[in-house]
Design goal:
heterodimer; A: 297 residues; mainly alpha; 16 helices; B: 206 residues; alpha/beta; 6 helices; 9 strands
Chain lengths: 297, 206
């Protein structure tokens, strides 16, 4: 089989830089990382200098994701040799046990890290990940809440908790987590939009109006967020169609919905120009928006 | 309740959808191009919908509405719902699965709900990794396996594996991906053509 460098005509430096980019931006494209990383390690180890250790770690985790225990094991051995007694490497050993579904052994390993160092956040998060993998959502939620009492600023944890609550249909608590995230990340359009979706799902006039406001906010932050655009259109339409609202509220919301509809149509016209495949979606959207206008009036 | 026929096209796309997002729960709807009223529920196609936030309402509502419109335009009907849970250990229908399936059953009396069994999706698996439910007395009950037909199962399985091996499963577009980039086609015309190519022409109905 041709090597990565041959297939894509890249140098080892470019491969190393790509790995760094994926590392820094937290991509989980594990098959690619394994392909590129394995070749880098096998062919160019000597040139990588101290970078090699973080690459071993990155490739090991990706290898676990792809069921490449052989590769994961050899990376782990290199790291164990270089950093004996390291908690960071111990955590990787734990992750390998998790991949082998040896959850009790993995938990014991993480507990031993935490005995040594109770502030080790990585080990605590792995414990919670194990509970999630075992389907023990209630316990995972409980431990994650305890974790967040101590580590209030951990964005990743807040987001994970919001996902767990959404899966349990506990929308009120999911909304609370997203509120925390929006407070600390006011420019993140995705949190606004997810919050709006949760509010919409909760239902009721108050939540619907909130959802419309947050869909609009998401659009202000990123005017190409299609979910927010559709969300604005749908929430405004529902409010306008409700018999319980005042004439003014109805008029305002019809305006918002009309604006959103126009934006959606424009976006789809632009999209449909290039490819004949998207014609189906364009027609479907047009018809859908038309039918929504009818129910509103 | 009658027989259900699952076409190669529907199965392959559903399977590839689950393979494309192994760490997420995914869902989609099952379609039929056969008119209602027959004894057999003929699942001829499927539309992959979401791979994130399945329980949330807005995008699900949006997707179902758009698929409805497209079905009307193309003489198809929504006859079922499929879901693959993120956890391989869990093949039970979630509350949101039941909700959506109930809605579909309101419009289609022979509606089916299909759960993909991740644990059976290992290399060299022999049986279709699916569990099907049908509606009886307002409840979803397990359907008799013998009433579920997959014509040319060996060939269907081979096609799915081939597309997986060649990396062509990345061609699959679900509604979520479409919203990330609206130039992508959630009706999957390109992938449909590829699957039709691979299916032997002697089959007739694919």
């Amino acid at each position: 089989m041709a090597s990565v460098s041959e297939l894509y005509d890249v140098t080892w430096e470019e491969m190393r830089d790509k790995l760094r980019k994926w590392r820094e931006e937290n991509y989980r494209n594990s098959e690619q990382i394994v392909d590129v990383g394995e070749e880098l390690i096998n062919e160019h180890a000597s040139k990588l200098g101290d970078d090699i250790w973080i690459i071993y770690e990155q490739v090991m985790i990706a290898a676990l994701d792809c069921s490449r225990d052989d590769l994961a094991w050899s990376c782990l051995q290199e790291l164990k040799r270089q950093f004996p007694g390291s908690h960071r490497v111990k955590r990787l050993a734990g992750m390998r046990l998790e991949a082998l579904e040896r959850y009790e052994d993995a938990t014991k390993l993480y507990d031993s890290i935490l005995q040594d160092d109770p502030t080790n956040t990585a080990a605590r998060k792995r414990r919670i990940a194990i509970l999630k993998a075992q389907g023990k959502s209630a316990e995972a939620i409980r431990e994650l809440n305890e974790y967040l009492e101590q580590f209030v600023g951990d964005q990743e944890a807040w987001h994970e908790l919001s996902e767990l609550y959404i899966n349990e249909h506990d929308y009120g608590k999911a909304a609370f987590c997203l509120e925390e995230l929006m407070m600390t990340n006011p420019h993140n359009h995705l949190y606004c939009e997810q919050y709006a979706e949760v509010k919409y799902t909760q239902g009721g006039m108050e939540n619907l109006e909130l959802s419309r406001r947050y869909f609009a906010q998401a659009l202000k932050l990123n005017n190409r967020n299609m979910r927010a655009l559709f969300g604005l259109c749908m929430s405004a339409s529902h409010i306008a169609a409700s018999p319980k609202v005042s004439a003014k509220v109805k008029k305002d919301n019809m305006k918002y919905a009309a604006w959103a509809t126009a934006q959606i149509n424009r976006a789809y016209q632009l999209a449909g120009r290039g490819t004949k495949e998207s014609k189906c979606s364009v027609k479907a959207v047009e018809e859908m928006l038309e039918s929504m206008q009818i129910t509103m009036s | 309740m009658g027989e259900v026929e699952l076409s190669c096209l529907a199965y392959v796309k559903m399977y590839l959808h689950a393979c494309l997002f192994p760490r997420c729960s995914v869902n989609g709807v099952l379609l039929s191009s056969t008119p209602a009223g027959g004894a057999v529920t003929d699942v001829t196609d499927c539309v992959p919908l979401l791979h994130s936030h399945l329980p949330l309402a807005p995008i699900t509502q949006l997707a179902l509405t758009q698929v409805d419109v497209w079905c009307a335009q193309t003489q198809q009907r929504i006859v079922g719902y499929y879901q693959a849970n993120a956890s391989v250990l869990d093949i039970s229908p979630t509350p949101c699965a039941l909700k959506i399936a109930d809605k579909i059953a309101e419009q289609c009396s022979n509606a089916v709900m299909l759960m993909i069994d991740g644990a059976k999706m290992t290399a060299g698996y022999r049986v279709p990794p699916i569990v099907m439910y049908e509606r009886k007395d307002s409840r979803w009950m397990l359907k008799d396996k013998h009433m579920i037909m997959l014509h040319q199962w060996e060939e269907t399985r081979a096609i799915a594996n081939q597309l997986l091996d060649s990396g062509d499963h990345t061609l699959l577009v679900d509604f979520d991906s479409h919203l990330d980039d609206i130039t992508k086609d959630w009706t999957n015309q390109k992938l449909n053509a590829k699957i039709a190519e691979l299916a032997s022409p002697a089959n007739g109905n694919v």
